[in-house]
Amino acid sequence: MKILVSLVLVVAAVFLALVLAGTGLRPLFGVALPYLAFATFLIGLAWRVVRWARSPVPFRIPTTCGQQKSLAFLPHSRLDNPFTGRQAFGRMVLEVLFFRSLFRNTTATLTRDGRLVYGSEKWLWAAGLAFHWSLLVIVLRHLRFFLEPVPGFVEVLQDVDGFFQVWVPVLYLTDLVIVAAMTFLFLRRVLLPQVRYISLANDYFPLFLLLGIALTGVLMRYFFKTDLAAVKDVALGLVTFRPTAPEAAGSLFYTHLFLVCVLLAYFPFSKLVHVAGVFLSPTRNLANNNRAERHVNPWNPEVKTHSYQEYEEEFHDLMKNAGYPLERE
Amino acid sequence: MHDAGKVVAGIAVFAGLVTAPIWYQASVGGAVQPLDLSRDFPVVRPGAPGFEDLPADLALNPDGTPRECVEPTEFMRANHMAILDRWRDQVVREDVHDYRSTTGKTWPHLKLTGTCMKCHQKKAEFCDRCHDRAGEKPYCWDCHLDRVAGGR
Ligand code: HEM
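Structure tokens for the assembled complex are given below, as produced in the milestone run.
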């Protein structure tokens, strides 16, 4: 049901755009919605981050995955149990770029004779990494539409991505990888009963949406071609604030663009904000130095204390008469 | 807000990255003008200077009828690379040299250099302008000559 609703929503968005982009409403798809969606994306994300930043994190609560800094003869695991800010930074870099904690993913299975066995489970990590890196390369390659002149690094990316020079226009490896990875991630969700049980519409919808974006892009590049000169006019128009929505760019292009707008507008209100959340995760981005430094909760109320020294001072005579051993004297 | 300095810096860096095309276009980017495809592109048409100098064996229509492109302009803009790719396969693998266009016409004996570039002579002024603007670097020219005898 959750799957069906998500699928229907994405398919409806595709048909809506396919039909309406051919009408007088084209400027809506080529101009108004992109600006609105982008503003929602940027302001929405900033708002989410500020809201998170308002929650105090008074203590150091990193999850530790290795030997903490201790006596000199115990090897300290710097990246898995960072002690300084720099080490925590190193840990974050590996987390953000290579999903290091997901690499540790395990799976629990019951053997035939009923024993519980834990094993390494790298597929989620591999598919997740393949998807995210492909997405990054694709988005960077798309800069060729938004930048004039096209900078050298975009052309290098295109050359490397199209290394095998299959077909005209050349097949990009990232296109294959992203579709394959998303297919895997979807199948994993529906085929593993446990994962399916915890999956929400909020998991399926972005998956279908991104798949829809990738597939309309692939269709446009390899099968139902469009006039890229017109596409460049649209993209450059948007970033120079002289927007246009020429008919020559084609309905498929406006559909692709509409799905991207839906993604951008949906982004700040969905699980996709993990892109910002990972940087604000106190279980990742803090150094584990609780034993070396005292972290005082800043909003602790003023507590009236009565230390032993003060106590001994107050009852000094009584205690002495009763024959108690005293610290002072 | 806690760690306000770091949080604001993070948001600023992110906002800067995702709006980078705006800043790029406003500073280093060249002046942006939509290409006027109908006007700016040099096509050698019958009667135009240089047309009579074309070698006779490059004539597309032996009966001397005015030249027209093998496909309508709109179609060519989006699909020319696919057509060339298909021709290549047809000629090399199937020994088929004629092209049947979407308008139903059959064009005999097609060649990239000898047919297309007979009218669209100057690669630098015709092909490259769109390709450069779109960041396309077709590898066709790794082997094929980008000029015809007498052209350029
Ligand atoms: C999240 C954002 C986006 C994703 C994931 C995405 C994905 C894709 C993919 C996978 C392709 C197939 C070819 C390739 O990899 O280059 C493609 C093609 C294309 N995309 Fe996007 N796209 C996105 C945003 C956009 C935007 C904002 C535009 C507006 C200019 C756009 C315009 C195009 C065009 C014109 C093509 C055809 C390219 C060609 O024929 O070479 N895309 N897209």
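Residues A 135, 138-139, 141-142, 145, 169, 172, 175, 178, 213-214, 217-218, 220-221, 228, 231, 235, 253, 256-257, 260, 263 surround protoporphyrin IX containing FE (CB under 6 Å). Residues 15 and 228 of chain A are 22 Å apart (CA to CA). Further analysis is deferred to the final report.
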